Amino acid sequence: MTRLTFVLRRLGQAVITLWAVTLLTFVMFTALPGSVAFGLLGVRTTTGDISRINHQLGLDQPLWKQYRHYMGDMLHGNFGTSVTYGRPAIDVIITALPTTVFLAVYAVLLTAVVTVVLAVVAALRRDKLPDHIIRSVPVVGLGMPAFWVGTMLLFLLAYKLPIFPAGGLRPGFGGHVETLFLPAATLAILYTAVMVRSLRASLLEVLDSEYVLSARAKGLVGRRLILRHVLPNAILPTVTLLGLIFAGLLGGALIVESVFALPGLGSLLITGFQRHDFALVQSVVVLSAVAILVVNIVIDVLYSVLDPRVGLK
Amino acid sequence: MSAATTSLALRRRARIFARARRSPWALRIGVTIVVVYALVAAFAPLLAPYDPLAQDVIHSLAPPSGQHLLGTDDLGRDVLSRLLYGARIDLPLAAISTGLSLLAGTLLGLVAAYFRGWVDLVLSRLIDMMMAIPAYPLLVLLLFMLGQNMWSIIIAFAVTGWVSYARLTRGQVLVVREQEYVTAAKLGALGSLRVMLKHILPNVTNQVIVLWASDMIMAISSIAALGYLGLGIQAPTPEWGVMIADGQQFLLTNWMLAAAPGVLIIVLGVGLALISDSLAGRSGRQ
Amino acid sequence: MTTDPLLAVDGLTVQYPGPDGDVTLVDHVTFDLAKGSALGLVGESGSGKTMTLRAILGLLPPRMSVSGSVRLDGYELVGRPERALGRLRGRRIALVPQDPMAALNPIRHIGSQLAEGCRLHLHLSKSDAKARVLEYLHRVGLPEAEQVMHRYPHQLSGGMRQRVMIAMALLAEPDIVLCDEPTTALDVTIQAQILRLLQSVCADVGAALIFVSHDLAVIRQICQDVVVMYAGRIAETGPVSSVFADPRHGYTASLLRSLPDVDVPEAPRAIPGEPPDPRHPPSGCRFHPRCAYRVDACPDLKFELAVIGPGRRSACIHAVTGLPEPDEPTGAEAFAAEEPAGPDLPPDPPDVLGPLAPEAMHR
Lengths: 313, 286, 363
Prior knowledge:
By secondary structure, chain A is mainly α. In chain A, 76% of the residues lie in helices and 0% in strands.
């Protein structure tokens, strides 16, 4: 199957999945009749207020009609108006998007660098002290809650030793790099714990392989051997994982954004939840789903490019 | 014939723990940790010196002392007691929700892989869809719908969590099915469902337990995260995540308020990770 | 020999630490290789022949310890650091491995893998390297060399891959080529072609050959001298013609008798039993449990290679006197000599029928 056919087929599947997601969110929305009104007016509403607002927002129409409006709006790019911000939800999301994307890229880069360094050291010094230390990282790291790590980092590197700013976002590339370092590092610590193990195992497998033996028999040693024969072969599954992590982060790193007070998609989600702002919540969910689906397709195509043995199904 | 296949199943079950034999200390330490936590959760009322909700504002933010082994928080509540009671929240919540995910997921995976046909097709599409939806937003959406209490957390986690178990079980069953099919055809299958259950379960059990242990770690972390964000369990209930959120303001003065609950979560995570690793054969010499 | 040998292997020993002490995989192997000659290394699987090749190149896993001496033109190889060995591998001693599919990097195309060697050792520019690669691909009988260069290993047939491996080994014009059963993974029809190719290219380049195989017929065809190995030790060595015509070790004779031969009316007799577990080898001569020429003194025999002629040595008790009439050991004895394998963890896959077989034979 050619690449184009593959991509088209996957896009088709993605559209169906996306439709299912929107249906799901719609169903969930209609399962909570009064909350939008609560969100707008606060706790002290009367039944009269609720029905007035419901009428205003078209919530008292038959379900299928609502659904038609809902889908129609969405296809026109209208995700509803955010009651919190009084603007179309889409606009609010787009403002928050750059922060989330920057953080996602930053975190993935840090994770990749640290993971590769640690895994290579562990694989080359197999069963010696550095290896044992590095192998215990996932054991501890998996259980660490992100918000705790973030808080501790804040404590150590922003309060005790004021190296980094304590949250918030500064505009500009340099400002982003500085203010987003701690959040990205928090994420990197957690993801590295997950990925070191798999990369190390992959490296060991490659180091034991026949073609590495053959490469050594040709006279390749040291750095050249690692960079040209070991790492490229071992890193393929890791690349896939990194892609998945990136996709997930595009949905907004809820916790980290909250700890460091960053205006990204994650905090929009939380705000939307607290204010019962359904348009906001729904938009973030749909956008994240789109991001994940697209990135998945990209990963699959990329993998087939990197590994010539793999054919696209 | 059935004796041979039954003994095979038994040997496989022994194999599950055979991997653990490579590093017995890992499994023992892990189980010890988890058991200790479970005991603390069960007997917290007996172990805790104070009522976790009892406020004593005069003595708020006190450092560790003879009276309050770990000091008090901003409302004068004893930190140690709150930590102990916290186990009664996070641990059972995580256990029940992952348990439900496990049951629902493995059952669905088993059914789909055994019957194949449209059942399998529908399930696979469902799994794809669930994997496309980012976990946290969906979780938040569900809590949005169901309200903020323990039961809604359990349901929300179960709804988002069953997918990995279903995928795992389905994959394993498909593999075994192919081989059993051959055997059954050759030996004149006797009640193939029974035969398959006898062989599939021991095979799948190991990986499912490993998955469950990792899942527990994630669940505890997430429950605490939700507590921290104010989206899950709420104050004044002594949940570890909530305690960390409360303690964050006092990092410079009483950093222990935020640090201690985190350490507890991490240690529990280590215990579960050790169990998971030793069962998966990942500890010891490799 | 009047001239010094190109490669002098003396007392080469490879061990690894086991639960009950060190396990010896290669036991004091000693032989010489003359410039331009072809030496065969014969033995069943587990005889240590592959390990010997790897030990010469210094390519053993770090767990294994190597002792003894391997001298290339007088230069000691054992114990050299990796960097020094890297300069020699490919350039002075090259390897043609057993399985060409596994030995090629699956994600790089053939051309780059071949060019790597000559750019590294001969410091050729990209275009010079490319030209050389093409030349050698032609030499090994691959006509569409240009296309082959851009292909990936999985896109070539087994025979083509092995030709590529031969080209890769000879690109840097080494003095010695170590071949590890290069035809085992191939179709019978291709085997002959590859063998002829190997012979001719090595002759062209003037490289000496160490050819490892369990196939006596091939050794007879290609090599001038032969080293017969069993269970890590040398059984006997010497020129191929005299060793095969007049074997002076029970194992050699048994191997020869197991070959089908048009001239001999009797059916070939396979050697009963299996090679021993290196962790618990039989005492004395390691072949005695399976040997048709065994006498009572064999289990107590001290290992020593006796010189029995120009370039001929044998470790057998009958080395000097010649082999007596064969007397097959009964099946039970041969099997009883197998020590049960140590307690290993069984492998993991959900293999329904597999585990039944060894379970049935387990004692």
